[in-house]
Amino acid sequence: MKYFQEADIAVTVCDKTGKIIDMNEQSREVNLRPGQELIGSNVLDCHPEPARAMLEDMMLNERKHVYTIEKNGRKKLIYQIPWYEGGEYMGFLELSMVIPFEMEHKIRTPNPTQD
Predict the structure, then answer these.
(1) How far separated are the first and last CA of the chain, in Å rounded?
(2) Which helix (DSSP H) or strand (DSSP E) does residue 67 occupy?
(3) Do the Cβ atoms of 44 and 60 come closer than 8 Å?
(4) What are phi and psi of 59, to 5 degrees?
(5) Which helix (H) or strand (E) holds 55?
């Protein structure tokens, strides 16, 4: 995950049981309290109900969940997805990034000369 260590996005990776196996620097800054270590702990223990049950169901059924939140005057996009290696379900990945409250939206139409 070296590409994401200093990226302006929080990346948290857990295995299929929910055990956190990697976090980039921004994820650590956002999620850790002083003296705390989350790698090796279960991501389900970090979420209160009903978020815990929803996350557990998403992991069990290998489905994604995408939403936005507002916290501390900042809007964030949360992108939670299963991850795979060689087609085998390996666990769950969460990407969290600050986004503008008002965003430009573009509609791209395919170029007929390109696929």
Answers:
(1) 31
(2) strand 65-71
(3) no
(4) -70, -40
(5) helix 51-60
pTM for the full predicted model:
0.84
Helix (H, G, I), strand (E, B) or coil at 64: coil
Burial 48-72 (b: 16+ CB within 10 A, else e): eeeeeeebeebbeeeeeeeeeeeee
- Rounded CA separation 21/67 (Å): 23
Compute the distance between CA of residue 112 and CA of residue 115 in angstroms, rounded to an integer. Answer: 7
pLDDT in tens, 51-101: 999 999 999 999 999 999 998 999 999 999 999 999 999 999 999 999 999
As a dihedral over the C-alpha atoms of residue 71, residue 74, residue 75, residue 79, rounded to 10 degrees, the angle is: -70
Query: Could you tell me the two tokens for 79?
Result: 């992108």
Contact yes or no for 4/11 (Cβ under 8 A): yes
In 3D space, the residue among 68, 60, 61, 72 whose CA is nearest the CA of residue 29 turns out to be 72
CA 14 to chain centre: 10
Per-residue pLDDT reduced to its tens digit, 16-49: 999 999 999 899 888 877 767 889 999 999 889 9
* Distance, CA of 94 to CA of 6 (rounded, Å): 16
